[in-house]
Design goal:
Structural class: alpha/beta
Shape: globular
CATH class of the largest domain: Alpha Beta
Number of helices: 9
Strand order of the largest sheet: 2-3-1-4-5
Oligomer: single chain
CATH topology of the largest domain: Rossmann fold
Number of strands: 9
Low-confidence stretches: none
CATH architecture of the largest domain: 3-Layer(aba) Sandwich
Radius of gyration: 20 Å
Distance between the termini: 37 Å
Largest sheet: 5 strands, parallel
Number of domains: 2
Helix content: 40-55%
Length: 286
């Protein structure tokens, strides 16, 4: 059985995420009181005609006092041998306020009616589960299609039976903006840009000619060696500290050539060390 707990800031897109998982053949339930999750999992596991072994449960601050036990419940389920991943959806305050204003809804924690007051309280309550979540996605600047691509990429890797520490590698173009839902950001614009080579311009870092052009540069080889060495050193420390996952962003000008090449090399290296890797190229088709 694979259980995905979907949570995050109110207005960040949990309903859309549940819809995406339902399309991925997950049995989805929204706003289930956390205290009932263990009983439901036990009941579902004995249900002889269940259609899928994948379950997604949406939980959020609407659960009131029940919500505060969610981390303990997840820990208890893992101790029973159930595979549990937590997907936390987030967005900046400005985006959340705009979404609330468009929907004309009030924030569940706002006593005075001020949306910002509710958001501040919710962030404080959510801080611990955000830190321990397997995956964190900032939905402020991505479309529903991009959200779907990231969730499919993350959970397809999670379902392939491979264990290990989850590491999400993201590539992006600085011209489109830097993602803010990551732990580390690396800028590889110091490497010669294949964009200025006519025959490489329309290709990407997934194509061998671009890959070979980038990795033929001495500075690219040295950087990759130092990057892999640093990540190899840090991951065991993060695991020891109790971190639930690691997100690494690699950027170049357009997010199509240099960043993609370096990310793919880093991904292959980390897969050999038995970590659970997902790779998302945010701007590769722009």
């Amino acid at each position: 059985m694979h259980l995905v707990v979907i949570t995050g800031m109110s207005g960040a897109g949990k309903s859309q995420a549940l819809n995406i998982l339902e399309d991925m053949d997950y049995y989805c339930i929204d706003n289930m009181p956390p205290m009932l999750i263990e009983e439901f999992v036990k009941l579902y596991d004995t249900y002889e005609v269940k259609k899928t072994s994948n379950i997604a449960v949406g939980v959020d601050i609407r659960g009131g006092e029940f919500f505060y036990k969610i981390n303990d419940i997840i820990t208890s389920l893992k101790k029973k041998g159930i595979k549990v991943d937590t997907l936390f959806l987030d967005a900046d305050d400005e985006t959340l306020i705009s979404r609330y204003q468009e929907s004309r809804r009030t924030h569940p924690l706002s006593r005075t009616g001020r949306i910002k007051e509710g958001i501040d309280k919710e962030r404080e309550i959510m801080s611990s589960i955000r830190e321990s979540s397997t995956y964190v996605i900032d939905t402020a600047a991505i479309s529903i299609r991009e959200l779907k691509d990231r969730i499919v990429s993350m959970l397809s890797s999670s379902n392939n039976g491979k264990s290990g520490f989850p590491i999400n590698i993201i590539t992006f173009g600085f011209k489109y903006g830097m993602p803010n839902d990551v732990d580390m950001v690396f800028d590889v614009r110091f490497i010669d840009n294949p964009y200025y080579i006519k025959e490489l311009r329309e290709k990407t870092g997934l194509d061998k000619p671009v890959h070979d052009y980038v990795m033929d540069k001495p500075e690219a080889k040295v950087f990759l060696a130092k990057l892999t060495d640093m990540v190899d050193y840090l991951v065991p420390l993060y695991i020891k500290e109790g971190k639930g996952r690691l997100s690494i962003a690699i950027g170049c000008t357009g997010g199509r050539h240099r960043s993609v090449t370096i990310a793919e090399e880093l991904s292959e290296h980390l897969k050999r060390t038995c970590h659970r890797i997902t790779t998302n190229h945010l701007n590769i088709n722009k």
